Amino acid sequence: MTQTASDTAPAGAPSGTPLLQLEGIRKRFGAVEVLRGVDLTLRSGQVTALVGDNGAGKSTLIKAVAGIYTIDDGRMLWEGRHVTVHNPKDAAALGIEVVYQDLALADNLDVVQNMFLGRERRRGLLLDEDSMEKSAGETLASLQVTTVRSVRQPVASLSGGQRQSVAVAKAVMWNSKLVILDEPTAALGVSQTRQVLDLVKRLGERGLAVLIVSHNLNDVFEVADRIAVLRLGEMVADVARGDVDSQSVVELMTTGRSDRLTADGPAPTSSAASREDA
Question: Domain boundaries in the chain?
Fold first, then answer.
């Protein structure tokens, strides 16, 4: 059972039907059950951080949402409707875009070509370069990405923070409603990390649902409205950022329970904690 210190949305977060609800998600690889009945709710205009130790199941969970893995049990509700995501194309059709840690950008292409890679616009037999360049520039401007000098700049010449910004802009171009970011600040310097964190905040302010996977708790506490903690394939906590501190999150990640929650909620009753008490 997931520990919930506060069931109310943070101030300013929209109410009503959640954008995405995961209920009892299970995934097995042979005899190994990687996800064990995971529940998670994501709302538009809200940034949720997904944290957990290595092997907790974070990558498997986001790949299940993205349609790379097919779930074995449980269900996914999108805007209140039960949906089945068979592949990444199904996920994209719903409005789910994922920015993986390797960014999947082509160094030999420029910013415009990367943002439209595989989705190029055509005018007759020719590529509609003017239309794509205009849309790429408008998307970057709407996200207040000012560090990229030109949309015709080769991606190979960009810094890590600039690359991450281009990858995020590429994700939000296609009428996306949920953007999943896998370790977006990994291996970035201080100034580049600041660019990316500001960009994550702006995504939430634009009304998108954001799920950010990160090992950096400083980043998590700066941008997240809610923090969801996975441990050994189980969701042991889903709490408002203000209800926890970094030490309690570490305790949840390592033991599945914490007595340090700042909210006046009940002690954790997760199955993981119960097994440890046995």
Answer: 20-106+178-277
d(Cα 137, Cα 111) in Å, to the nearest integer?
9
Cβ neighbours around 183 below 10 Å, total: 19
Q: pLDDT tens across 213-231, in order?
A: 999 999 999 999 999 999 9
Q: Which numeric CATH code is attached to 20-106+178-277?
A: 3.40.50.300
Instruction: Report whether pLDDT(243) > 80.
Output: yes
Find, among 205, 210, 206, the residue nearest to 179 by Cα: 210
Q: Residue 257's pLDDT is what?
A: 84
Question: Is the dihedral angle over the CA atoms 91, 93, 96, 98 positive or is it negative?
Answer: positive
Beta bridge partners of 83: 76
